[in-house]
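From the shared-data thread, chain only:
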Amino acid sequence: MAIPSFLNNDVINVENLVGGTEARCFAVFPDGRRFNMGNFINLEAKQDFKKSKAPILGNPGGGNRKGAPTNKITGKVHYNNSLFRRFAQEYQRMRKDLYFDMVIVNSDPTSTVGEQRVILHGVNMDSTVIAKFDAESEFLTEDFSATFESWELDTEFNNTGVREA
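Structure, as tokens:
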């Protein structure tokens, strides 16, 4: 039996990969201020769905129905500025919560897939490190955790990273 031709095209080309350091991240605040968030070491914005199990006659496993999403950001940043601490202090004093947008751009000039730009709307931080030291650490870092209300795929990678079978 002959192997279908689409099974022979399962190798990705190295020029279709995107370098992990080839990204930019910006925070855009409601008052119009925009910050280059180059202090991020890594970041992942993720949408998880709550699923409900649905009993189905004749199907012992039942079915799964997708429910409301939860949008979450996790990351690590260099501990080298006071921006988020300033916002935490404002919340402590005035109970004024901060929601802002983040723009994440993946653009590797050595890759053939082009650029992807994602905008996270309504970012709201979960916690903030107020002060820190670590005598054993070469560089101080802090974890970043937040939720976001919605997101938009502003610019998509081209289709060279995947092929239709």
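The chain has one domain: 20-48+70-158.
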